[in-house]
Amino acid sequence: MSYKGVIIEESLSDSGIIKELEIVDTYISKTTARETTPWLEQWTLQTVIIPEEKIEEFAKRLSALIDKDHISSWYCDFRNDTTHYVIFSEKVFKLDRANKQDYNEIRTFGIELGIPTTQLPNFNDLDENLSEEAMDKALRPALMKVGEDDTVLPVRGPSKFENDGYTYIFESIGQIENFTGLEEIYKDKKLVYRLHCHGGIIE
């Protein structure tokens, strides 16, 4: 079973490896303070497919290529229905997608490196009711824009984000100390995903 994931070209010391893979989508995002990469003007996100028999090889190669001058900013990840590879500089994690503890461990590792928590994979982000296409075209790029829209709290994505037939919408009520939120994704105006969330500050 093949693996699908996103590589940010700017995260690699040599992006030539991407040409060896099947590219299924390219998305360019202008950087803001949210991305914490002030030395870059943009991120080039390449959605790629890696055959199952090649995943171990490419995981090791990508791990060696991640920009070592900025290891606190980068990782890449690839998944199929059962397994999720999360790749940091010189460190590869192979996760069971049904095991929440696996995700707790890689998030702890990433946070210790200095990677913002909003950019790390989360067990709840891999909702099996949401298609891989919807995640790649709507959910993931929308979540990368958290904090850019001051009309909603900086806890999920912007109030609205559109890409290739998908529309992401997020609404929040309350303050950061105590809030509720509603996140929805539409494909060609048909609702395909809904998430209710709430949170606040615990003293």
Task: Describe the overall structure.
This protein has about 200 residues and is an alpha+beta fold. It folds into two domains: about 5-125, no CATH class; about 130-200, no CATH class. It contains three helices and ten strands, in the order βββαβββααββββ. The chain has helices spanning about 55-65, 100-115, 130-145, and strands at about 5-10, 20-30, 40-50, 75-80, 85-90, 90-95, 160-165, 165-175, 180-185, 190-200. The strands form two sheets. It has a six-stranded antiparallel β-sheet with strand order 2-3-1-4-5-6, sandwiched between helices. The chain is globular. The mean pLDDT is about 90.
List the helices and strands and how they pair.
Blueprint: E1 3-8, E2 22-30, E3 42-50, H1 55-65, E4 76-79, E5 83-88, E6 91-96, H2 100-113, H3 132-143, E7 160-163, E8 166-175, E9 178-187, E10 190-200
Antiparallel strand pairs: 1-3, 1-4, 2-3, 4-5, 5-6, 7-8, 8-9, 9-10
